[in-house]
């Protein structure tokens, strides 16, 4: 079967699905309209499915004529709390936006579902279709896993993609892979620096948490610059800082919130430990006190090298060899696809969706973000061929 031609045949339908989904963006784990739309399409395709998996997750199952292993194809389907400014005729008007391409991911997976269902007599095993909410936070993969999405039948491998311009060099329709670390963890931390409030003209009568905070902020950055192995990337960003209400009053406390990104689990744990040690030593040394909370969020995303190598051979059937690139370094963004890849081998690849000639140049999470719809058939074809080839090879 010619997967590229079959995908081209339903290109217009994939675009229609994407545009319909684009108009109903929902955020977080609460995606009832999106889940209902996906279920409606699976119903029309006569694919058995289950709703309410880990909340609003939807799972379809395509059984091949011959028994075998099970591969999962995953697409996230939530949007962002961003007011859209694309000017598209199908732009969302509910105050939210698909500013990260999840509408396209879902549409391309629906396209793969249609082709696989129509050709299930050629499938040796099963294909599980995972439509997941909450990727942008608080995370929908883990609740779906906890609810048994990787069981009945047991999932043996997993494949997923992310459209857009994850690297500035990406061209439309290109496939970018990694044979190991592709994305970082997504952690957060909270620090409350406690002092003793007093008059701003009499600092000696109190303990200034703002002065302490200044020392803490400077010192925390030395974890990245002086304590991590230089070849292991890491990011520590303070994105929220609040303290005081008046210009002439030293406040009782200052609150700091930030994020940590690392691609190595050991370095991740080291950063979490060192933040508290530095905060403790500085605050105590300056007569203050502190509270500290560290939240381990999505783990680093690590692709399976063997699965990725096999997928590259698959991709050569869909795109030209010069359109397959290897990421030289991971991106520090996070993705909860990492939870699936912790449990079963698989790969998560980046799929070029920007297009400078069409003015599709805005980054993810931007109110003007868009993707080139002309490449959708390729994304569908890569998922279909990836599933068929893996099941054929691993009977």
Distance between the ends? 19 Å
Q: Tell me the domain tally.
A: 2
Query: Helical content, roughly?
Result: 25-40%
CATH third-tier fold name of the largest domain:
Aminopeptidase
Strand content: 25-35%
Instruction: Please provide the ordered H/E string of secondary-structure elements.
Output: HHHEEEHEHEEEEEHEEEHEEHEHEH
Number of strands: 16
**Number of helix segments?**
10
Shape: elongated
CATH architectural arrangement of the largest domain: 3-Layer(aba) Sandwich
Helix vs. strand class: alpha/beta
CATH classification class of the largest domain: Alpha Beta
Largest β sheet strand count, sense and barrel closure: 8 strands, mixed
EC number: 3.5.1.-
Pfam families: M20_dimer (PF07687), Peptidase_M20 (PF01546)
Protein name: Amidohydrolase YhaA
GO biological process, one term: diaminopimelate biosynthetic process
Task: Please write out the topology.
Blueprint: H1 3-9, H2 11-22, H3 32-44, E1 49-53, E2 57-63, E3 66-76, H4 102-118, E4 124-132, H5 141-146, E5 157-164, E6 175-177, E7 181-183, E8 186-194, E9 198-199, H6 209-227, E10 234-243, E11 249-250, E12 253-262, H7 265-285, E13 289-298, E14 301-302, H8 305-315, E15 324-326, H9 337-343, E16 346-352, H10 376-393
Helix pairs in contact: 1-10, 2-4, 4-10, 6-7, 8-10
């Amino acid at each position: 079967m010619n997967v590229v031609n079959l995908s081209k045949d339903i290109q217009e339908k994939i675009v229609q699905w994407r545009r319909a989904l684009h108009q109903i963006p929902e955020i977080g784990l609460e995606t009832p309209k999106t889940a209902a739309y996906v279920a409606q399409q699976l119903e029309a395709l006569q694919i058995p499915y289950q709703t309410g998996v880990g909340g609003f997750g939807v799972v379809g199952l395509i059984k091949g004529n011959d028994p075998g292993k099970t591969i999962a194809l995953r697409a996230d389907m939530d949007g962002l709390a961003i007011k859209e400014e694309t000017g598209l005729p199908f732009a969302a008007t509910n105050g939210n936006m698909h500013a990260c391409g999840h509408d396209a991911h879902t549409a391309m997976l629906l396209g793969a579902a249609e082709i696989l269902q129509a050709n299930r007599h050629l499938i040796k095993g099963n294909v599980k279709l995972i439509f997941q909410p909450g990727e942008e936070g608080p995370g929908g993969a883990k609740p779906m896993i906890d609810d048994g999405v990787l069981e009945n039948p047991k999932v043996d491998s997993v494949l997923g993609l992310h459209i857009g311009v994850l690297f500035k060099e990406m061209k439309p329709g290109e496939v970018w892979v990694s044979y190991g670390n592709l994305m970082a963890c997504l952690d957060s931390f909270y620090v409350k620096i406690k002092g003793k409030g007093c008059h701003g003209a009499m600092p000696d009568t109190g303990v200034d948490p703002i002065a302490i905070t200044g020392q803490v902020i400077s010192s925390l950055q030395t974890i990245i610059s002086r304590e991590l192995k230089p070849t292991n990337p890491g990011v520590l960003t303070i994105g929220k800082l609040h303290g005081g209400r008046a210009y002439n009053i030293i406040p009782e406390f200052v609150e700091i919130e930030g994020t940590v990104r690392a691609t190595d689990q050991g370095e991740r744990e080291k950063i979490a430990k060192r933040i508290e040690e530095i905060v403790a030593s500085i605050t105590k040394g300056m007569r203050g006190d502190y509270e500290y909370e560290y939240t381990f969020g999505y783990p680093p995303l690590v692709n399976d090298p063997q699965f990725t190598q096999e997928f590259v051979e698959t991709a050569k059937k869909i795109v030209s060899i010069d359109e397959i690139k290897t990421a030289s370094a991971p991106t520090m963004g996070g993705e909860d696809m990492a939870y699936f890849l912790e449990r079963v081998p698989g790969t998560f690849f980046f799929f070029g969706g920007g297009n400078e000639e069409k003015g599709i140049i805005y980054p993810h999470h931007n109110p003007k973000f868009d993707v080139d719809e002309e490449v959708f058939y390729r994304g569908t074809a890569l998922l279909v061929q990836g599933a068929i080839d893996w099941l054929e090879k691993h009977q």
